Amino acid sequence: MKTVKLLSIEISKHWELIKFAATTADEVDEKDLQPYLIELLHAILSDKAQCWVRIDEDRNIIALLITRVIADKITLDKSLFLQCVYSFSKVPIEIWQKDFDLMIQFAKKENCKNIKFNSRHLRIWEMVKTFGCREAHRSFIYDIGGI
């Protein structure tokens, strides 16, 4: 198994798989699906986002990760944002650690100060703590009806 970054010319070949993984991982609401996918496709094709895939020995995609290099609006410090992570099968933590190490290398190459991501999933929280991540904050939401 290895993880590689797809080139923009490879995106159309894998677009259906990317759409499924990204919208599932990001839990995109049906009403927001089209603008989400248009923005995602534009970002990947213009290199504002990166699409990484973990492939098996037969070159089948078994996991997908979308990243973005973002800059803080005040400090201009760059961060690597892990937008979505999706695995099509259960994977040992050692494999995830290798992928995380690859993201660290990529972040350093892009002169990022840190790696950031959001997750609502307890298993992800537990796993990334073993990688040395710390919790920065938690977000909460209250829906206002009728708007």
Structure description:
The protein has 147 residues and is α+β, with helices and mostly antiparallel strands. It has a single domain (2-118), classed as Aminopeptidase (3-Layer(aba) Sandwich), CATH 3.40.630.30. The chain contains four helices and five strands; from the N terminus they run βααβββαβα. α1 packs antiparallel against α2. The longest helix is centred in the N-terminal third of the chain and has 18 residues, at 8-25. The radius of gyration is 16 Å and the shape is globular.
Give the topology:
Layout: E1 2-5, H1 8-25, H2 33-45, E2 50-55, E3 61-71, E4 78-87, H3 93-109, E5 114-117, H4 122-130
Helix pairs in contact: 1-2
Alpha carbon gyration radius: 16 Å
* CATH-assigned homologous superfamily: Gcn5-related N-acetyltransferase (GNAT)
Count, helices: 4
| CATH A-level architecture | 3-Layer(aba) Sandwich
Shape: globular
Percent range of helical residues: 25-40%
CATH class, please?
A: Alpha Beta
Average pLDDT taken over every residue: 90
**Regions with little confidence, pLDDT below 50 for 5+ residues:** none
Written as H for each helix and E for each strand, in order along the chain, the element string is EHHEEEHEH
Side by side, the strands of the main sheet go 1-2-3-4-5
Characterize the main sheet: 5 strands, mixed
Range of strand content = 15-25%
- Give the helix/strand class: alpha+beta
According to CATH, the fold-level topology is Aminopeptidase
The total strand number stands at 5
